[in-house]
Design goal:
The protein has about 140 residues and is an alpha+beta fold. The protein folds into two domains: about 35 residues; about 80 residues, N-utilization substance G protein NusG, insert domain (mini-chromosome maintenance (MCM) complex, domain 2, Sandwich), CATH 2.60.320.10. A hairpin with a 4-residue loop joins strand 7 and strand 8.
Length: about 140
């Protein structure tokens, strides 16, 4: 038989756990869903570590696609849409690059390791260089 204090302790622990889960979930949603763009957004496409193409995503008016052919004839079909870019088809075995979907922010780059392709988004800071605020300060 449970005593009243055991019930109160379990209820309090459950309430704290639910509160922590809600706070964590809301912080993650905020980080993932907020648009951090401040300036022009460009996509940089690298093959074997070499920059092969730069696309200003903020200037794209109409969707288009193109193929990137790598070593041994491996192919990644890339689609560019206004403000976003993604791999829509690849002949690599795992096709994780296709599963990543379209990138709209520089948080996570699109990568295709078998075909050695990386798509990175870069956002230019809207502030002039002399007024930029440092990300961190160390002593």
């Amino acid at each position: 038989m449970r005593t009243c204090s055991e019930k109160n302790t379990r209820t309090a622990a459950l309430a704290i756990a639910v509160l922590l889960v809600l706070i964590t979930a809301s912080c993650l949603l905020y980080l993932l869903l907020t648009d951090r763009r401040q300036g022009a957004c460009t996509a940089e496409i690298y093959q074997n570590g070499r920059l092969i193409r730069v696309i200003p995503l903020d200037q794209v008016q109409k969707a288009y696609s193109f193929d990137v052919v790598g070593q041994g004839g491996c192919i990644n079909r890339i689609e560019v849409r206004p403000g976003k870019i993604g791999v829509i088809w690849a002949d690599c075995p795992d096709r994780l690059c296709v599963e990543q979907g379209f990138a709209e922010s520089p948080v996570i780059p699109i990568t295709c390791l078998p075909n050695r392709l990386v798509i990175r988004l870069k956002v230019e800071d809207a502030l002039p260089a002399d007024t930029a605020v440092p990300d961190a300060v160390t002593y």
